[in-house]
Design a protein that fits this description.
Blueprint lengths: L2 H9 L2 H7 L13 E6 L3 E6 L3 E2 L2 H15 L9 E4 L7 E14 L1 H31 L5 E12 L2 E12 L2 E27 L3 H13 L1 E2 L1
Antiparallel strand pairs: 1-2, 2-9, 3-4, 4-5, 5-8, 6-7, 7-8
Length: 216
Amino acid sequence: MNGISVVFRKALAIPAVVVAGVFAASASGQGSEFNKIVVKDRVHLELPAAWFVYGAKGLDRLAQVSEQIFGHRKRYPTSFAAQSEQTAPVAMVRVTVSPADPPLTQAELKANAQEFADELRNELREATAEMWARLAKIGVKPVGEPRVDVEELGGQLAIVIRYGRTQPGHPGMTMRVEQYWVPLGSEMAQITLSHLEGDPKAVASRDRIKRSIRIH
């Protein structure tokens, strides 16, 4: 296993991303104004002013829900979380900036990106089998096959994992998730964008936030 694989396998935390979206259902809403957000001096983005932003207690509650389902908390807590509505959101964003062990630079990722993406793609089903088994108990199932790509986000190269999942109590509804892993030397930025499939306002919010992201 190469150094890149070690970094991403240590950081990989798809369960927390799924759990963070467990509260979504079927409403829609979007403000026309945007607020600028800076997460740990690393990730800059613009968020619709009408969105609900989690405070410290809300972030801790997300961690508690994750622990209840998976039996343990994330190694590094979510740094920022927001969604289109406080209840029944159709779009969400989560950002975590954490130490990278071992460190990984953009140059190293660029030199080995395709090799690692292929390796992660091959291992993803086995690596997430237990996660989906636990989520099935609360009515969440995967939709289709996950994808692993290498692309730019906010001016930096990233590994992105895309997948779909059902909603608890709404098996006919699919949430589409994009999880970006951006190595920044001694730190790793994880940015997750989720939206309800087939909801135009949710897609528009996701696209607008994604275009605004800058990573330093």
